[in-house]
Specification:
Elements lengths: L1 H20 L2 E7 L3 E8 L4 E8 L11 E2 L1 H15 L8 E8 L3 E5 L17 E2 L7 H9 L17 H11 L1 H5 L2 E6 H10 L4 E2 H7 L10 H6 L17 E2 L11 H7 L6 E2 L3 E2 H10 L20 E4 L3 E7 L9 E5 L7 E7 L3 H9 L4 H11 L3 H13 L12 E3 L17 E3 L4
Parallel strand pairs: 1-5, 5-11, 5-12, 9-10
Antiparallel strand pairs: 1-2, 2-3, 4-7, 6-7, 6-8, 13-14, 14-16, 15-16, 17-18
Helix pairs in contact: 3-4, 12-13
Length: 426
């Protein structure tokens, strides 16, 4: 019938118009052990995902290192994978998040070794690296006022202790040659745009920067890092943007070629990986799901972000000071709100450590592979079977775990604490 023919044509025309209007966004997430990318349309639909492992070196106890070149190469692989078959001119923006690891480059932007072996490809001190224990202790003994914004105690996982360690232990091979110290999320936005802009998220949470007043030179001078006060803080950043703000220049031609995108594509000021997750959870639209938080202010929400470590994140309209809890950080995650963070250094990593160190791990690997599942999905299925035969909790009724195998992040703020399992038998 002519009417049906007209209807079909109209529908096809509408479909084509909608297709023409679709725009895309790429998000790249750099975790501790892998890099992931997602292609998302303007409606929030995830259209493609990709993942690429990255290397971790542990040359000695408490030392964890990575390579900025290895990480960037992984970013390029996953980005090119998710945009396959897409008109890249419809990609409106690119955003990075990453672990709060320390990247060191020389005055020619070449990697510098952060190790005594002189391996320049290993130019990242990872967030979970605890080599700077004594430096963190000395910084905390100063009782400087910037410590009030990190729960009163600076963590060995933050950047000032690591920077001081490099100065004291690698002065000739690294410190004197270093021209640029980046948090990893900021390194990625620089690599994408050639802009030395830093994110308010990284500098406020890990470097003692204040959103309202900037750097406190008295802190750097007191702890023996007075070099950072020179040349307008050029080595650590003097142009700072709120997370998500467009970085000047946009995607450079070289980076565009690496990533498989168009030059000039907008690049957002980056986020720490946990904070990207926190933003997504705290800012989520929960209407229509019958959740207790529906209709409540976002300050009533708590985000629990789990990966290699765990982070508990909450925001408030006014600053809240809690001993042993990081923050309050102003506008570091949600603009105009104060952020507090708890959590533990070893969460997913501790789970891997326990499972992979068990005598039955080899058997588990075989059974999981034969079932076509990863080991944790298989373990969860196995637990469901056990629950059908035994009361819930019976497996652990006599087992008690103190989980601080990699120190305690909060609220005890003690990186020297050890973990234990009580209740073992022969």
């Amino acid at each position: 019938h002519p009417e049906n023919f007209c209807t079909i044509n109209c529908l096809l025309e509408m479909s084509n118009k909608m297709h023409e209007l679709v725009h895309y966004y790429v998000g790249i997430d750099v975790g501790s052990a892998s890099v992931r990318a997602a292609l998302v349309d303007q409606f929030g639909t995830v259209l493609a995902l990709a993942e690429q492992p990255i290397q971790i070196w542990e040359p000695q106890p408490h030392h964890y290192e990575q390579s900025s070149e290895d990480i960037w190469n992984a970013c390029c692989i996953v980005c090119k994978t998710v945009v396959q078959g897409i008109d890249i001119n419809r990609i409106r923006g690119l955003g990075f998040d990453a672990t709060c690891s320390l990247v060191v480059l020389d005055d020619q932007f070449r990697p510098l070794a952060v190790n005594v072996e002189g391996e320049h490809n290993r130019n990242i001190v990872m967030w979970m690296d605890h080599r700077a224990f004594s430096q963190a202790e000395r910084i905390n003994q100063t009782k400087h006022s910037v410590l009030d914004s990190v729960g009163g105690t600076m963590s060995v996982e933050m950047q000032p202790p690591k920077l001081l360690w490099i100065k004291e232990n690698l002065k000739e091979t690294c410190w004197k040659k270093a021209a640029h110290f980046f948090d990893l999320p900021d390194f990625l936005s620089w690599k994408a745009t050639s802009s030395l802009t830093r994110s308010l998220c990284t500098l406020v949470c890990k470097w003692t920067y204040k959103a309202d007043s900037g750097w406190d030179d008295s802190f750097w001078e007191l702890v023996g890092l007075e070099e950072f006060t020179k040349d307008g803080h050029a080595k650590i950043g003097n142009h700072v943007l709120s997370p998500g703000s467009p970085v000047e220049y946009g995607l450079s031609p070289e980076a565009a070629k690496d990533l498989g995108l168009s030059p000039g594509t907008a690049v957002a000021a980056s986020l720490i990986d946990a904070h990207a997750g926190g933003l997504g959870l705290i800012g989520a639209d929960v209407r229509g799901y019958s959740l207790p938080c529906e209709g409540q202010p976002i300050t009533s929400r708590l985000a629990l972000i789990c990966g290699t470590s765990s982070c508990h994140m909450a925001i408030s309209k006014t600053p809240i000071f809690v001993p042993g809890v990081w923050g309050p950080y102003y506008s570091a995650m949600v603009p105009g709100f104060w952020l507090n963070e708890g959590g533990q250094s070893a969460a997913g990593k501790l789970m891997n450590h326990i499972v992979q160190g068990h005598a039955a791990f080899s058997e588990l690997e075989v059974k999981a592979k034969s079932s076509g599942q990863n080991i944790y999905t298989y373990l969860n299925s196995h637990l469901e079977l056990i629950k059908g035969r035994l009361p819930a909790g019976s497996l652990t009724v006599d087992l008690h775990v103190w989980p601080d195998f990699h120190g305690n992040r909060s609220p005890l703020a003690d990186p020297a604490l050890k973990g234990m399992v009580v209740g073992l038998t022969l």
